[in-house]
Amino acid sequence: MTDRIPLAGVIGSPIAHSRSPVMHMHWLATLGLAGHYIPMDVAQQDLERVLQTLPRMGFVGVNVTVPHKETVLQFADQVTDRAGLIGAANTLTFRAGGGIVADNTDGYGFIENLRRGAPNWDAAAGPAVVVGAGGASRAVVASLIEAGVPEIMVSNRTRIRAERLREDLGRRVRVVDWSQVRNVLGDAGLLVNTTSLGMTGNPPLRLSLDGLRPDAVVTDLVYAPLRTELLQVAEARGCVTVDGLGMLLYQGVPGFERWFGQRPTVDEATRRAVLG
Ligand code: ATR
Known about the structure:
Layout: E1 7-12, H1 20-31, E2 36-41, H2 47-53, E3 59-64, E4 78-79, H3 81-86, E5 91-94, E6 100-103, H4 106-117, E7 128-131, H5 135-147, E8 152-155, H6 159-169, E9 173-175, H7 181-184, E10 190-193, E11 217-220, H8 229-236, E12 240-242, H9 245-251, H10 253-260, H11 268-275
Parallel strand pairs: 1-2, 1-3, 4-6, 7-8, 7-10, 8-9, 10-11, 11-12
Antiparallel strand pairs: 3-5, 5-6
Helix pairs in contact: 1-11, 4-5, 4-9
Bound molecules: 2'-monophosphoadenosine-5'-diphosphate.
Binding site for NADP(+): 81, 132-136, 156-161, 221, 244
Function: Involved in the biosynthesis of the chorismate, which leads to the biosynthesis of aromatic amino acids. Catalyzes the reversible NADPH linked reduction of 3-dehydroshikimate (DHSA) to yield shikimate (SA).
Pathway: Metabolic intermediate biosynthesis; chorismate biosynthesis; chorismate from D-erythrose 4-phosphate and phosphoenolpyruvate: step 4/7
């Protein structure tokens, strides 16, 4: 049997905007590895068949994006604890002997980006305020709990989603009404925007930061634009700010290492490649 070139990719719909292909191809080229990473537009009704077919075609794994992150769990043979807790997977690995392992590396990407961008941030030092309660928020909150943050205040426009998040992720989560976020900022060592507010084409997250401590860290999952209005206002207060691009880069690291056998480096060249 001839050695096949390992294939990986990303499945979602739409997929054309995804920056994952350029990132993984950049890592393959820099490390001099044989392999390919392919974007695939997959409709919901084709998902199961595609996941059965890809391993036979030489795929070693795929990333999963909107709208399949939750649905793929039902097709997995093994779901990691963190993917189960979050209720979504972004990284699938096809085992050599058959079977799909579903993992979620978004929280890893978030924490890694935060630690690199704000090395002085002390997880145990105080509560975090997380705006939003969607899939991304779940991954962020789970990673903050794992990192040892004593209390995580979650606020969402649709309160019931924040309440469900607390039910799933536990006692360290406190739900804060959408109209009350500004009033809980005073205690926070960390403020995170996990909503799509601030993304190009969307209105900004308009939140008064008057009560925020100047030594608090502010991070935004939005990376287009890189410097969101939230980060600009926080910076003007003297806060350390961390943009969202690094989370995208770091969440890709575990999958790449599993599939292609080497751990890639996230550096300025990776950022430039991904930003195009
Ligand atoms: P993701 O996987 O990126 O988290 P998602 O699960 O669709 O995507 O969640 C999107 C998040 O952005 C939610 O917290 C959503 O709030 P709702 O649950 O109330 O919809 C938030 N969001 C999106 N548009 C918003 C807006 N205009 N104002 C406030 N929150 C918004």
